[in-house]
Fold this protein.
Amino acid sequence: MQKTFFLACFALSLSLHDLCAQAKGNVNYNEANMNRRSKQEYQQNANLNNIGGLTDAGAPVATIMSNDFVDIDASVLFNTKPDHLVAIFNVVQLGETASEVNRIANDRINGFWGELQKMGVKQEQLFIDMVSLIPVYEVEVEKKLFSKNYNEVPKGFELQKNLHISFADERKLNEILTTASQFEIYDIVRVDYIVNDSKKIYAQMQDEAAAVIAGKLERYKKMGINISPNNRTVAENSTIFYPTDRYKSYQAFSSTSLDMKKSANAPKIQQVRKPMSYYYNKVSEATFDAVVNPHVLEPVVQYAYTLKMRCFIERALPAPAKEKEVWILTPAGELKLMPK
């Protein structure tokens, strides 16, 4: 009976492990292939986290720093879709003369622009940035009787232009990429995410942070801690996380391990190129008091805001000391209270 119970538990643990592995994804291969040095660095970082106020399990650690004041902070994360995007494509063209290289590059750009117009892109949504026009040199061999000279000679020109394309729907980028490839434009430099009204977002985050602090002050009051309504200091900070800065890479592969003796007859293993995968790693919501638009499907612009308030604690004043009474003994043997 005991053996049967043990086997059942073992099978259940394997099933749960497989289920968790499927939920985590292939990014965990990085953790499985972590070498000893990486593990040591990971452990050092975990120890530093303990010092900073986090346990290994991630539970927060509260620390009392002073009996005179308390710091109350509120952190807010705001997820928003961009109002429009700007994709930058790099066009490189080689030619024998400057006029030829410019003509060929313009033919490619004009053909691409014609297709963009069919997609609804307007003239004000395209900007052509002239980057460089430089001569290209090659090496020619000059043969002499007893020697050779290698001389650089001009062979043509290299022209580079950047195309800045603005569009509102992020899903249109795939169509733009496909169209660009038809004109041998393959290099997409970067994609900028633009939000029009950041001031409105910050105002909403400030209101959210103020509500969080008000709630914390009310909880302190219920615990019997008297927070002074006067003499408060405030500090705030904010930052923006764009999707272009939040992509991370990993490699997911499994290599077969073969035990081979180091000898002259041992076969030589040819290593192949392992694919590099990238994924969007949004800012975690775990450390924020409030999150606006928490459900994220596609990459978004993430605004982070922190408001900290230092409040002083009111202390009960000590009862005033009673004034001393002075009594005198008269020659007649009577006790009389001296007037104040």
User: Anything to note?
Assistant: Confidence is low (pLDDT under 50) at residues 1-23, 34-59. Residues 9-48 form one domain. The longest strand covers residues 148-167. The chain is about 30% helix and 30% strand.
